[in-house]
Write a structure and sequence with these properties.
388 residues, alpha/beta, Aspartate Aminotransferase, domain 1, Aspartate Aminotransferase, domain 2, seven-stranded mixed sheet, four-stranded antiparallel sheet, 41% helix, 14% strand, binds pyridoxal-5'-phosphate, PyrdxlP-dep_Trfase, transferase, Aminotransferase, transaminase activity
Length: 388
């Protein structure tokens, strides 16, 4: 048998965390008890009423059928209301919001809906790796734009102007930014939208971190109220501790939603009704919900700063989101070898910034999704290794 994979599969590698978790599992199987400070998967529980809404709904015998591809109207209404209460953005719940099985799948849907072979896509470096892989899988061409520490990880409009060509179709923007923790410069983003309008480029802001350690949650749609070029992905994964539930949304104008639904409805079906009922409950939570989570993340962040001081990494204390992004010591050549050094000698795993692109090569990213005891244990292990 000589069965070849499609060429498109050669444009991507297995997702970094998928591979690394296998390696960590192998270490754990031989008793190494790895502390994973890598992935941003909230360890805190969803709100109790949200889980009850799921179980109550799952217990009803008639809630198990296929669901509408666009989600139930009540869920779309709750999403629109949430956008209004969090970001003060008005959304038509019937036409301008599409529930997603996580925002990650939305990145693929958007890429498949808009990219022809060779269409160019502006992707941040460093940036979430899925923008690159979805572009490649859809046959587009990734054109990286740089985010620089010296520019507070802001978009450099001069560079963007130079990178735009007749083939530029789409640009991924991600503020609050992962992995750098930058909050975005509203003035730059305003000019960027004007540039996109004059060059006929779609801008998609990926916005899953606006409610984590951030006093001013914003939506990029504020700068494009008629949703002419801006679309936005959002997610309950981080803000509501529901990463495994797979709950996201796309907000865009009616034509965009209809175009993307044309692809999505051929790919998957509507999400499980009890998950939709629970999502409605989650979206109705008041400000206290976010506040109580953030108090916990704030304490953890102080511990992470302590850990970073021990390994002599430099970081800004003004970061937002679920991670701390830090520069490795000058003496260490790259973040991958630094991450491996820590993993093999202390059994503490920290994400190397290199997986987010060449601009992340001198950085590491530490997740806040571990409790204080675990972070203390990580610090103890690292101190012991350094003292050897
Ligand atoms: C920047 C960014 N976008 C999107 C996602 C995917 O989130 P979701 O769980 O909604 O698919 C993540 C997850 O880590 C992320 O960091």
């Amino acid at each position: 048998m000589n069965i070849q994979t499609a060429n498109r599969i050669n444009t991507v590698n297995e997702y970094y965390f998928s591979k690394k978790m296998k390696e960590i599992d192998e270490l754990n199987k031989v008793g190494k008890k790895v502390i994973n400070l890598g992935i941003g998967s909230p360890d805190l529980a969803p709100e109790l009423g949200v889980v009850k809404a799921l179980t109550d709904s799952a217990n009803a015998f008639n809630n198990h059928a296929y669901q509408s591809y666009k989600g139930i109207p009540e869920l779309r209404y709750a999403m629109a209301n949430w956008y209004n209460s969090i970001y003060e953005i008005a959304i038509d719940s019937n036409h301008e919001v599409l529930p997603l099985i996580g925002s990650k799948e939305g990145i693929m849907h958007i890429s498949m809906t808009y990219l022809n072979e060779g269409d160019e896509v502006l992707v941040p470096n460093p940036g979430y790796p899925t923008y690159t892989s979805a572009t490649n899988l859809a046959g587009g061409k990734v054109v990286h734009y740089n985010l620089d520490e010296s520019n507070d990880w802001d978009i450099n409009l001069k560079e963007i102007e130079q990178l735009i060509s007749a083939k530029t179709k789409l640009m991924w923007v991600n503020y609050p930014n992962m992995p750098t923790g930058a909050n975005g410069n509203w003035n730059t983003l305003k000019q960027l939208i004007a540039l996109a309008k004059s060059n006929n480029i779609l801008i998609c802001n990926d916005n899953p971190y606006s409610l984590t350690l951030n006093d001013t949650p914003k939506s990029l749609l504020e700068l494009d109220p008629n949703k002419k070029v801006v679309m936005e992905l959002n997610s309950l994964s981080k803000s509501h501790n529901m990463a495994g539930w797979r709950l996201g949304m796309l907000v865009a104008n009616q034509s965009r939603i209809d175009e993307i639904l044309k692809f999505k409805s051929n790919m998957d079906s509507g999400m499980f009704l009890p998950v939709q009922h629970a999502a409605i409950k989650a979206l109705e939570l008041g400000k206290d919900w976010y506040k109580s989570n953030n108090l916990i993340y704030e304490e953890r962040r102080k511990k992470v700063w302590e850990l970073l001081d021990v390994i002599k990494c430099k970081y800004s204390k003004n970061q937002v989101g679920m991670f701390v992004w830090a520069k490795i010591p000058e003496s260490i050549s790259n973040s991958t070898s630094f991450s491996d050094l820590l993993l093999y000698n202390t059994k503490v795993f920290i994400t190397p910034g290199s997986i987010f692109g060449s601009k992340g090569g001198k950085f590491i990213r530490v997740s806040l999704c571990n409790n204080i005891e675990t972070l203390d244990e990580a610090i103890t292990r690292i101190k012991k290794f350094i003292a050897q």
